[in-house]
Amino acid sequence: MALAGTGAFLWQAQRAAPAFPADGMIAQQADAPTMTAPASPEFSGDIDAEQGLALAADAWGDMERVADPVERKLVNLGRGETLMQLLLDAEVPQEHAQGAISALRGVYDPRRMRSGQEIKVLFDHSAGDGKFVGFEFQPAVERSVSVSFDGVRFQAAEVAKPLQRRWVAAQGRIESSLYQAGYASGVPTPVLNALINKLFNYDVDWQRDIQPGDSFEVLYEQYLTESGEVAKVGTVSYAALTLSGKRRELFLYEDSDGSADYFTRKGESVRKALLRTPVDGARLTSGFGMRMHPLLGYSKMHKGADFGAPTGTPVFAAGDGIVEEAGQKGAYGNYVRIRHNREIATAYAHLSRFGSGLRRGARVNQGDVIGYVGSTGRSTGPHLHYEVHRGGKQVNPMSVDLPTGRNLDGKELKRFQAVLAQIEDRYADAQAGLTLVSASAGRPAAKAEGCRKAPGC
């Protein structure tokens, strides 16, 4: 089909008017003024449909160039490159680059930028000179940072993107380790670390208690951008391990005073004074008691437990406390001792190095990295020598009777039971993909068909 023309092309866009209804195509349109192109020899005669579309596209392109005179030059931060060098390479005058970076420091430290960071450098061509007017980048999916020139000075701003929260349920069969099983099921690393180092580390020996055929379940928060991109993961609400047929369940509960902890179905806190194993993925190579010393060649009392692990494996503080010693200690090599209370202390020996900022007098929390497995001092290979001191004497770390945390009762127990039921409903709904809610208002982003009585539905 040909479109008649008389030396000029007339184009008009109207809201909600399909461009080519006869062909079944619907074009997205917007209000715009009537545009009449000047007569030109190349437009004389008939114009077919394909030419008409091309001319319309050119008209839109001309409008966009007039409406937005700002050029956005896309660059990436190179390995070892500074933001200043990047801007200079993008032909930004040094004085302007310094002013823009100075403004940026008010909302974001440029030293935190990583290699490969994508940055849009902005130049204004409205006056024909291509003046540098700022830059934009996105350090994380949930926020963006911009620096712009307001005519007098550069100003920086950080904008948080709205996030939606949803609960994600995952489960899997354990064949070798919880970490491998969780990773295979798509569970994020922070969630796996929480399961291994915080929730179940009080009661589970990760080497001896895990058997092929065991299983896990977990319910955790996930935050999404409006485009559906995962921004971050939140807390674990529920977790369960089935080990040799025995099921262990933990529920997150915040009491009426605002204190949050994990509890069993009976309302018993999982928290104990000390972790069962202060190093992840290690195997017990030598227990507490008399043994033939591997280097000295005679029987000697072994006053701790040895956990074999590769050099550099993180070692965690078994409980909250104050660092009493941190340094070289004869046959112990690199040594740390933590005082937890008047009666209990723990010691960690043969470390390859100490945790960041660890020093005598420092306060540590349970699960903090205090050092890394090594073979310093009198040692036959990389391992952690771990001791528990009670009343100044070493006791068996694997059998010492440790106090537990709080047990709920009365009104608090009833309140917990109500929360427990909500978590179970939420877990069931998450398995069906029904619990997407607004993170800011706590109300459903869109009520899903079949949503049950879980909070947010």
Automatic annotation (TrEMBL):
<keyword id="KW-0482">Metalloprotease</keyword>
<dbReference type="GO" id="GO:0004222">
    <property type="term" value="F:metalloendopeptidase activity"/>
</dbReference>
<keyword id="KW-0645">Protease</keyword>
<keyword id="KW-0862">Zinc</keyword>
<dbReference type="InterPro" id="IPR050570">
    <property type="entry name" value="Cell_wall_metabolism_enzyme"/>
</dbReference>
<keyword id="KW-0378">Hydrolase</keyword>
<feature type="domain" description="M23ase beta-sheet core">
    <location>
        <begin position="300"/>
        <end position="397"/>
    </location>
</feature>
<dbReference type="InterPro" id="IPR011055">
    <property type="entry name" value="Dup_hybrid_motif"/>
</dbReference>
<dbReference type="GO" id="GO:0006508">
    <property type="term" value="P:proteolysis"/>
</dbReference>
<protein>
    <submittedName>
        <fullName>M23 family metallopeptidase</fullName>
    </submittedName>
</protein>
<dbReference type="Pfam" id="PF01551">
    <property type="entry name" value="Peptidase_M23"/>
</dbReference>
<keyword id="KW-0479">Metal-binding</keyword>
<dbReference type="InterPro" id="IPR016047">
    <property type="entry name" value="M23ase_b-sheet_dom"/>
</dbReference>
<dbReference type="GO" id="GO:0046872">
    <property type="term" value="F:metal ion binding"/>
</dbReference>
